[in-house]
Amino acid sequence: MSNSGGSSPFLDRPNIEDLRKEDDVVRDELIKSLEYELNTVQNEFEIQNMRLQRQYNHLEKQYKSNLDTLEKTLNDMQELHVRNESLNRNLSELKKEYSEVIEEKEIQFKTLNSDYDVVKEECEFLRNQYQTMASRVGDQEEYKKLETEASQNLIKMYENELSKQNKQIISLKKLVTEKDGELEDLKANGVIKTHQNYNTEELQELTVVNKLLKDQQVYVKELEEANMQQANELKKIRLQNESHHYWKNAFENLQKENSNFNATVQDLELENIKLKSQLTAWEAYGDDDKPDNILRELRLSKEEYKNLAFENEKLVIDMNNMKELNDEMAQERNQLLEIHSNFEVSVLNLKKLNHEIEQQKLLSFEECKILRKQLDDYLEAPESKMVNIPTKEVNNLKNLENMVDDYKSQTEDLTNELKKLNDQLMSQEPANKKRKTSDQVTINYSKRLNELQIENIRINKELQNSNNVVHLLEEKLKKLINLKERKIRILQLRDSPLLKDQFIKKKQLELLKAENEDLLSNIINSSTNDSIPRSVFETISFELQQKEEEIFKTNKKFIRLKEMFNKKSLEFIDVVNSLLGFKLEFQQDGRVKIFSCFKPDRYLMADLTKNTLKSNLQTDVDNFEELLHLWVEDRGQIPCFLAKITLLLWESSNKYQ
Predict the structure, then answer these.
(1) 341-384, pLDDT tens digit by residue?
(2) Is the same domain home to 470 and 355?
């Protein structure tokens, strides 16, 4: 029952339909996942593209507005320059007139100086005469002073004698009154009448007493007469002294009036001499020019001079305002240049993106080449391997090849157009020559850019589809050839410093080449035009931009360091306050204000330049001056002094609590 030539039903055969279904399922899942990734990438790309388009439109609007403002400012600057030139001309004319007036005034001043010398000599002669008169009067005054001193001495002597005599008179009057009292007592008592048997001795004593009394009365009368005479003499001497003072004051007043009269006489003589000299000068010019007419002209010239000076002040104020306006316009121009530089930076960023896109394009080209080689190898394989591949897949491969070729041709066209656009953007003419043509060109460029962007989106979609097909083909090739190849990934930073440096160097090279070509063309043409090529301005502006970026970085670093310094200084002040109990406040001119934590409203002011110490703690610390003298002046220990004050303030604050 052996069947050698036939096939047994128990042998396993591969089910081709099941394998195909599994492959189709895997392929559909891969297609769906790749389509999802493609859609996400496409959406991100469109969003980024729209954002860049908006930024580009915004920058373009800013550039146009800045160009408008630049043209306006340039027109205003031209008007201001014209006005400034006219004002400078008027000012030079006024300066010439002013110099002529100054020369005339100098001539008049020289003539007046000569007249002044003559008058000065006369004044010296009169001054000498006055000095001789004054010396005589001074001698007489000294003689009068000596007489008054002698009379005052006599008056003092008489006053002393009068005081002595007055004292004697007062004492004698007292004796007389006492004796009169005794006599009245005797008379009242009737001692003389009743006493009949009195002795001769008593009578003799009484007679002696009566004589003494009479002599004393006579002497008193004589003293009174002498006193009256001396009083009259004193009155006469006082009257003479008063008259002397009166005449002395009168003489001084007359001297003052005489000096004033002499001064007025000298002034009048000076005016007379001036008038005579002016009359002689006027007579020399002729009879027509009278003094009244010349004075009237002089007044009118003075008024004109005042008006011209006022106009000059106005012109100076206008010049200052013009300078301020010029400065403001310069600031606006600098701002516009900054905006222009920012616009150029944005253009550079767009070029960077373009460069990245080109790199991605090159990578895609390389991948397409690799796939093309693999397809060629696959197609060149022997027919024994191609038996299992259906005709549909072969047709799909051919279609894919055609699509890759179309994509390649379209990308090459786009790259050529992008290069043309970049060349046109780099070789743009200055905007100040023809405004309308530049606006039209920019509108055409924007339209062309929009069209290119739309084509780019469409091509990107096709590229994604082709990438999906390429992925499927790669998977099939992997399965067929059983090669485990790894994907090549190029890691790259978006804003690496190396790329930035390369872009800057490349830009500098391009600008220097353009500048060299323009300068060589000017030398070859040997043109006498004083204008500078635009390439020179572009190189200078690019260098300026780089310098501004460096300055911005340094300023940012300086601000950061300043913030750190302020932070650390505040931390230092807080540490000193928490550890030592004092808050330090550094002021200008080397002064330091020290506040205690126990009395924040009180302070010590230390001046480090003048080496002084001021405070308002005298009310809170009783022996403040003693502590200052002990610790600072005698011992020279300011920390001990501050520690003592903190202890006292702590004790006072605890007492109040």
Answers:
(1) 777 777 777 777 777 777 777 777 777 777 777 667 666 654 44
(2) yes
The DSSP secondary-structure symbol of 583 reads E
CATH number of the domain residue 640 falls in: 3.30.457.60
Give residue 561's pLDDT. 92
Between CA 442 and CA 450 the distance in angstroms is 12
Q: Which residues, other chains included, contact 294 with Cβ-Cβ below 8 Å and sequence gap of 6+?
A: 282
Residue 9's CB is within 10 A of a number of other CB atoms, namely 5
Q: How far apart are CA 448 and CA 439, in angstroms?
A: 14
How many other CB atoms are there within 10 angstroms of residue 189's CB atom? 11
Looking at every residue in the chain, the average pLDDT score rounds to 73
Asked, for residue 466, whether it belongs to a domain, the answer is yes
In the chain the first and final C-alpha atoms are separated, in Å, by 126
What is the three-class DSSP state of 593? strand
Whether residue 437 has pLDDT greater than 60: no
DSSP 607: E
Residue 441, in any domain of the structure: yes
- 429 vs 431: CA distance, rounded Å: 6
Q: Which of 459, 484, 509 is the last residue of a domain?
A: 484
Are β-strands 603-607 and 612-615 bridged in parallel, bridged antiparallel, or unpaired? antiparallel
CA dist list (Å): 23 to 19, 33, 48, 97: 6, 15, 37, 107
- Tell me how far apart the alpha carbons of residues 291 and 289 are, in angstroms, rounded to a whole number: 7
Domain finish residue from 433, 454, 484: 484
Q: Tell me the DSSP string of 1-35.
A: ---SSS--TTS----HHHHHHHHHHHHHHHHHHHH
Closest CA to 467 of 34, 9, 11, 1: 34
Distance CA 142, CA 138 (A): 6
CA distance 82 to 412: 56
Q: Specify the number of domains making up the chain.
A: 2
Amino acid identity for residue 41 in this structure: V
Q: Which domain holds residue 612?
A: 581-656
Domain membership of residue 170 (yes or no) is no
* 327 phi and psi angles, rounded to 5 deg: -60, -45
Alpha helices in 427-533 (DSSP H): 435-481, 497-525
pLDDT tens, residue by residue, 587-609:
877 888 888 888 888 888 888 78
pLDDT bucket at 198, cuts 50 / 70 / 90: very low
Tens of pLDDT, residues 496-512: 677 778 888 888 899 88
* 596 within some domain: yes
